[in-house]
Specification:
Blueprint (H helix, E strand, L loop, with lengths): L2 H43 L30 H8 L8 H8 L14 H14 L3 E7 L14 E7 L5 E4 L14 E2 L11 H13 L10 H7 L7 H11 L4 E3 L2 H6 L1 E3 L2 E3 L15 H4 L6
Helix pairs in contact: 2-4
Keywords: Membrane, Transmembrane, Transmembrane helix
Protein name: Transglutaminase domain-containing protein
């Protein structure tokens, strides 16, 4: 073999090695990306390993109609429908599983607070196929005395059986994270799916391996392990507040368009709902039309 042939052989060998390394890197990147995209589905599907909670995309109905949006992006709900798979059954277990895997941007008053968080959560849940509403009260939630002049917004979901489930949307923001954010109803309905019960389970999981005196049950936990403690009066006030909103709207645009009382139109500016302008939602904003 001549010198030129040897040089050529070495160059070919180097090229082959580089191609193998490049292919391996690309495969790893693809695998990691694919796993990240599938992690949510895996987490959700584990509640029923024999049958996915999602509708097969091949059987999904695509000729859907979406609410007409004038003030919001034209394809507002269409984007949500394409981003999130529809669930087969809209029950409390499915709702709980999905909420446990949602983490909204960091809460910041007058930037990304209860109105933005509620609008984004309603949008996400509509994408999954739930019937969701944005609820409002002119008063703050029980126990929030420092917000005496502040109103509040949250989300209420209607399940297939007609039950309504209230969700404190700010409990899904990064710095106020108490998933699934579900508020138990009257007579402690959906207690085991509530954020308080999840806090109780998390506490047991965190301290069960040490020399700690653990709470005997949920009541013991909320009365003696939380600061401030919670009693039945607070729980009753909480369910009464969240399940009896002063206003309930199908879309955030209804708040923006407002309602007329006499000669005055009361409305909420769209700047209170434009969650897609948050930097962490940039990838969604790019999908919206006329944003």
């Amino acid at each position: 073999m001549g010198l030129l042939d040897k040089i050529l052989a070495v160059l070919v060998a180097i090229l082959v090695v580089e191609m193998i390394i490049y292919t391996g890197i690309q495969t790893e990147l693809y695998t990691n990306t694919k796993l990240r995209n599938l992690s949510l589905l895996d987490d959700l599907n584990h509640i029923n390993t024999s049958n996915s909670i999602f509708i097969n995309e091949l059987n999904k109905t695509f000729n859907k109609t979406y609410p007409k949006m004038d003030e919001f992006p034209k394809n507002y709900y269409e984007v949500a429908d394409k981003m999130y798979p529809d669930v087969k059954v809209r029950n409390i277990r499915t709702l709980y599983a999905i909420l446990k895997n949602i983490k909204l941007p960091t809460y910041k008053e007058e930037y990304y607070d209860c109105s933005e968080a509620s609008a984004q959560l309603e949008w996400i849940l509509e994408g999954y196929g739930f019937k969701a509403y944005i609820a409002e009260s002119p008063n703050p939630p029980p126990g929030e005395a420092s917000l005496s002049n502040a109103g509040h917004m949250w989300v209420i979901v209607e399940l297939d059986n007609g039950d309504l489930v209230a969700i404190e949307s700010t409990y899904l923001t990064k710095n106020h994270y108490h998933p699934p954010g579900i508020i138990m109803g009257n007579n402690r309905k959906y207690l085991e799916y509530s954020y308080l019960y999840q806090m109780y389970l998390d506490y047991l999981n965190k301290y069960s391996n040490g020399n700690y005196i653990l709470p005997k049950n949920l009541d013991d936990f909320i009365r003696h392990y939380l600061n401030p403690p919670i009693d039945d009066n607070y729980l009753n006030a909480l369910s009464s507040y969240y399940y009896n909103p002063s206003k309930l709207c199908d879309t955030p645009e209804e708040y923006v368009l407002g309602e007329k009382h006499g000669n005055v139109i009361y409305y909420v500016p769209i700047s209170q709902f434009d969650w897609w302008n948050h930097p962490e939602n940039k990838h969604i904003k790019e999908l919206f039309e006329n944003n």
